[in-house]
C-alpha cells in the first residue's frame, strides 16, 4: 500500500511539472534600451517577475489557455499582451514613455500665463499689482509683455498690429462685453476689474483655442479664484480715492466683495494747462465687485457681478474751434456672470454658464447729445472627456445676443436713431493629443453663424509642440479667426460679411531655475476688412468688405528672478511690420497705433533693511505713423519716440500694513501720440496742426493698504 501511495504522489508531481509553462522575454524602451525593474505578470494571478539589468525576464506558470500578460513600469504606459500562454516566449516588449503633466511638453504658442498653478507662467498674479506704472490695472501690466503696443492715449490692448476692438475679454470662459471704463477721446482708460479676485490670467497674442471666437487678434482669459485661503478685510486709502473689500467663508461656500471710489480732482488740479484739457467736473467713478462660490464634492458654482458708474465733464482743445470743445459723459455698467462645473464618473466633466451686461452712455458734445444703450448676453455649455493622459476631447456650443440702440440729437434738435439686434450661434470641438512627453498637438474647429450678417463661417485651429530637451520646447500654431464688424459700423448697416484674420506662429520657450526665455515669429493675414468712403462711419457711407492687410514680426521675452538676490526683472522686445487697407484709408498703410519697435524693462528689488520693495519700469516705442496733409503720400511721417519711466515704492509697515507710492512718467517725457490738422488751410495754403498729448500720461498716487485676516495676521511680505 505504501508503495502504491508513493507512486500516486510521484505521478501527481510529475504531471504538475509537465503542466508548467515558461514565459520569457525582454523589455526595452522605444530606442531598444533595456529597462530594469519592470513588473511582468499574468493578470489575475500571482505569477510574475521583474526584468533584470539587461531587460530580460522569465518565470513559470501553471495557467493555460488565453491569458493577459501585463508589463508595467513607472514613467511608462502599461503594456498588455493577450493570447495563449504557450506563445509568451522570447517576447520583445517596447514600453512607451507616459505623458508627465509636470515635465512633459505643453502647448504654449501665442499664450502667456499668469497663475501660481501653471508651470509655464511668465507672470504671477501679483505682478499685475506690483509693476511700476500699472497702478493695479491688469491691462497696463500686460502691456509690458511682447506683442503688445502701448497706445498711451487709449489704454486698451493693441496686439500685433490689431486694433483694440480685435481683443476680447472673458471671465471664467464667459464674454465680458464692456471690459474697460468709458472715457473721452485721447484719454486712457482702465480695466473695470480688480486683479485680487482672479487666480490666474491667460493672455493669448494669437493662435488661441477653438473655444473662443469673435476676436481677430487675441483673447484675455480671467479666471476667478475657486476657494479663498482665509477670511480677510482689505482697506486701501489713496490720494485719488479708496476702497474696501471683505472675504467671508462658511463651510464650502464663500463670498468676496470689493468696492472702490475714485475722484481725480487732486490729480487734475496738477495737469498743466498746455495739455489741452480743462476739467469742469473731475473724473469720478464708483465701482464694486462680488464673487460667490459654492464648492461641492464633485461640483463648483460661481456667481460674479460687477458694477461701475462714471461721471465727468471736460473741455478739450480742438484746432478747428476757438474755444474748448465741451464733452460730458455719464456711464453706467452692470455685469453678471455665473458658471457651474460638474465632474462625472469616467473622467467626464460638464461646464455651463451665462453672462449678461447692461451698459448706458449719456454723452454731451457741445450742444449735441448722444444716448446709447446696449444689452448683451452669452450662454455657453461645454463637455470634456479625458480618455487617458494622452488624449482628451472637449466640445460645446454657445449663443450671443446683443441689442444696441442709439439716439443722436443735434443742435437743431433733429433726431437720428440707429442700432441693431444680433444673435450669434457657435459650436466648437477640440482635442489635446499627447503622443509622448516630447510631442503634443491641439486640433480644433469652430463654426459660427450670425443672424446680423451673411453666411456660416468655419474656423480650423491647430497647435503643435515639440520638446527636444528638459527645459526648452518649440511650438507651432495656425488658425482662422472671424469677427463681426464693430458697433460703430453695424449700427448703420448690416449688409456686410465678417472680417477675417489667419495666424501663423512659431514659438520657442526655455524655462529653468527661475529663468524664462520666449521668442515668437508670426504672420497675420487680414481679409474682408470693412472700408467706408467717409471720414467716419455714418448713415450715408458706402460700406464694403474689400479691405485687407498683414502683420508680421518677432517677439522676445526674458525673465530672471534667481541670478541676483532679491532682484526680479523681465525684459521684452517686439518688432512689428504691418500695413492694412481698411476704414477710410485711400491705400494700404501702417496705422497710427502700430509703432515698429517696442521695448519694456520691469525691475523689482527687495531692500531687506528698509523693509521695502522698489520697482522701476521703462517703456519705449518708436515713432508712430501719422498723415500730414501738407506733404504727398499717406501716413508717411512719424511722431517722435515714446518714452516712459515709472517708479513705485512699497514699504512694509508690518505684516498687515503697506504704504505704497507710485509715479508714472517720472521724467515727464512729453510724448506725442498723433497730430490734429486744421480742416482748412491758412492763407499760405498750409494746414496748421496741434500735437495730441494725453493728459494722463504722467500720474502719481500715494496709497495705504491694510489687510486684516481671520486670525488677525497677514503675510504681506509674501505678497511683495
UniProtKB/TrEMBL annotation:
Instruction: Name its cellular compartments.
Output: Cell outer membrane
Q: Where is the signal peptide?
A: 1-19
The family this protein is said to belong to: Belongs to the TonB-dependent receptor family.
Listed SUPFAM superfamilies: Carboxypeptidase regulatory domain-like, Porins
Q: What is its main location?
A: membrane
Q: Which UniProt keywords apply?
A: Cell outer membrane, Membrane, Receptor, Signal, TonB box
- Protein's UniProt keywords contain Cell membrane: no
Q: What is this protein called?
A: TonB-dependent receptor
Annotated TonB-dependent receptor plug domain ranges read: 120-214
The TonB-dependent receptor-like beta-barrel domain covers: 305-666
Gene3D superfamilies linked: Carboxypeptidase-like, regulatory domain, TonB-dependent receptor, beta-barrel domain, TonB-dependent receptor, plug domain
In terms of Pfam families, this protein maps to: CarbopepD_reg_2, Plug, TonB_dep_Rec_b-barrel
Q: Where is the organism placed in the taxonomic lineage, from the top?
A: Bacteria, Pseudomonadati, Bacteroidota, Flavobacteriia, Flavobacteriales
The keyword Membrane is assigned to this record: yes
Amino acid at each position: 500500500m505504501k508503495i502504491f501511495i508513493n507512486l500516486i504522489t510521484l505521478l501527481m508531481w510529475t504531471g504538475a511539472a509537465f503542466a508548467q509553462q515558461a514565459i520569457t522575454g525582454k523589455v526595452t524602451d522605444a530606442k531598444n534600451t533595456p529597462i530594469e525593474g519592470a513588473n511582468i505578470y499574468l493578470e489575475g494571478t500571482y505569477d510574475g517577475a521583474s526584468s533584470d539589468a539587461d531587460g530580460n525576464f522569465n518565470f513559470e506558470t501553471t495557467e493555460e489557455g488565453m491569458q493577459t500578460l501585463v508589463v508595467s513600469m513607472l514613467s511608462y504606459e502599461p503594456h498588455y499582451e493577450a493570447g495563449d500562454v504557450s506563445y509568451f516566449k522570447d517576447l520583445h516588449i517596447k514600453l512607451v514613455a507616459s505623458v508627465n503633466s509636470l515635465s512633459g511638453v505643453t502647448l504654449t504658442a501665442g499664450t502667456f500665463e499668469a497663475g501660481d498653478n501653471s508651470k509655464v507662467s511668465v507672470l504671477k498674479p501679483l505682478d499685475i499689482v506690483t509693476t511700476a506704472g500699472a497702478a493695479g490695472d491688469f491691462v497696463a501690466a500686460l502691456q509690458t509683455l511682447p506683442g503688445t503696443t502701448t497706445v498711451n492715449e487709449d489704454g486698451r490692448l493693441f496686439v500685433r498690429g490689431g486694433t483694440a476692438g480685435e481683443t476680447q475679454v472673458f471671465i471664467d470662459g464667459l464674454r465680458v462685453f464692456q471690459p474697460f471704463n468709458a472715457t473721452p477721446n485721447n484719454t486712457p482708460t482702465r480695466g473695470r476689474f480688480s486683479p485680487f479676485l482672479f487666480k490666474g490670467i491667460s493672455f493669448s497674442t494669437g493662435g488661441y483655442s477653438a473655444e473662443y471666437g469673435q476676436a481677430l487678434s487675441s483673447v484675455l482669459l480671467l479666471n476667478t479664484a475657486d476657494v479663498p485661503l482665509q477670511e480677510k478685510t482689505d482697506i486701501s486709502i489713496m490720494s485719488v480715492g479708496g476702497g474696501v473689500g471683505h472675504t467671508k467663508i462658511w463651510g464650502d461656500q464663500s463670498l468676496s466683495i470689493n468696492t472702490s471710489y475714485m475722484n481725480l480732482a487732486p490729480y487734475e488740479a496738477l495737469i498743466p494747462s498746455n495739455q489741452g484739457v480743462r476739467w469742469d467736473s473731475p473724473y469720478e467713478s464708483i465701482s464694486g465687485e462680488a464673487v460667490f462660490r459654492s464648492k461641492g464634492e464633485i461640483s463648483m458654482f460661481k456667481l460674479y457681478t460687477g458694477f461701475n458708474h462714471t461721471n465727468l465733464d471736460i473741455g478739450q482743445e480742438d484746432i478747428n474751434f476757438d474755444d474748448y470743445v465741451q464733452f460730458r459723459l455719464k456711464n453706467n455698467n452692470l455685469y453678471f456672470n455665473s458658471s457651474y462645473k460638474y465632474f462625472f464618473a469616467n473622467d467626464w466633466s460638464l461646464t455651463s454658464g451665462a453672462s449678461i451686461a447692461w451698459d448706458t452712455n449719456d454723452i454731451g458734445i457741445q450742444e449735441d447729445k448722444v444716448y446709447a444703450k446696449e444689452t448683451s448676453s452669452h450662454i455657453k455649455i461645454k463637455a470634456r472627456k479625458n480618455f487617458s493622459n494622452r488624449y482628451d476631447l472637449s466640445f460645446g456650443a454657445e449663443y450671443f445676443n446683443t441689442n444696441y440702440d442709439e439716439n443722436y440729437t443735434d443742435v437743431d434738435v433733429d433726431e437720428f436713431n440707429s442700432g441693431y439686434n444680433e444673435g450669434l450661434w457657435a459650436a466648437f470641438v477640440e482635442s489635446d493629443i499627447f503622443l509622448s512627453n516630447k510631442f503634443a498637438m491641439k486640433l480644433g474647429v469652430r463654426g459660427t453663424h450670425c443672424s446680423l450678417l451673411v453666411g456660416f463661417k468655419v474656423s480650423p485651429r491647430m497647435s503643435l509642440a515639440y520638446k527636444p530637451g528638459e527645459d526648452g520646447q518649440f511650438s507651432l500654431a495656425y488658425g482662422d479667426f472671424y469677427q463681426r464688424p464693430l458697433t460703430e459700423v453695424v449700427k448703420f448697416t448690416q449688409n456686410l460679411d465678417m472680417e477675417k484674420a489667419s495666424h501663423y506662429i512659431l514659438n520657442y520657450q526655455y524655462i529653468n531655475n527661475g529663468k524664462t526665455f520666449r521668442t515668437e515669429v508670426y504672420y497675420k493675414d487680414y481679409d474682408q476688412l470693412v472700408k467706408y468712403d467717409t471720414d467716419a462711419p455714418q448713415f450715408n457711407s458706402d460700406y464694403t468688405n474689400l479691405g485687407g492687410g498683414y502683420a508680421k514680426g518677432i517677439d522676445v521675452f526674458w525673465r530672471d528672478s534667481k541670478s541676483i538676490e532679491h532682484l526680479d526683472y523681465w525684459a521684452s522686445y517686439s518688432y512689428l511690420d504691418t500695413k492694412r487697407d481698411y476704414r477710410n484709408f485711400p491705400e494700404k498703410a501702417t496705422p497710427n497705433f502700430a509703432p515698429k519697435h517696442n521695448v519694456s524693462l520691469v525691475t523689482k528689488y527687495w531692500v531687506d533693511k528698509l523693509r521695502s520693495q522698489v520697482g522701476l519700469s521703462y517703456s519705449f516705442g518708436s515713432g508712430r505713423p501719422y498723415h500730414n496733409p501738407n506733404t504727398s503720400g499717406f501716413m508717411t511721417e512719424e511722431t517722435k519716440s515714446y518714452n516712459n519711466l515709472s517708479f513705485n515704492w512699497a514699504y512694509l509697515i508690518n505684516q498687515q500694513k503697506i504704504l505704497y507710492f507710485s509715479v508714472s512718467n517720472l521724467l515727464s517725457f512729453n510724448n506725442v501720440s498723433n497730430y490734429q490738422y486744421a480742416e482748412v488751410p491758412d492763407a499760405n495754403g498750409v494746414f496748421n496742426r496741434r500735437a495730441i498729448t494725453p493728459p494722463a500720461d504722467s500720474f502719481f498716487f500715494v496709497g495705504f493698504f491694510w489687510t486684516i485676516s481671520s486670525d488677525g495676521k497677514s503675510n504681506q511680505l509674501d505678497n511683495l
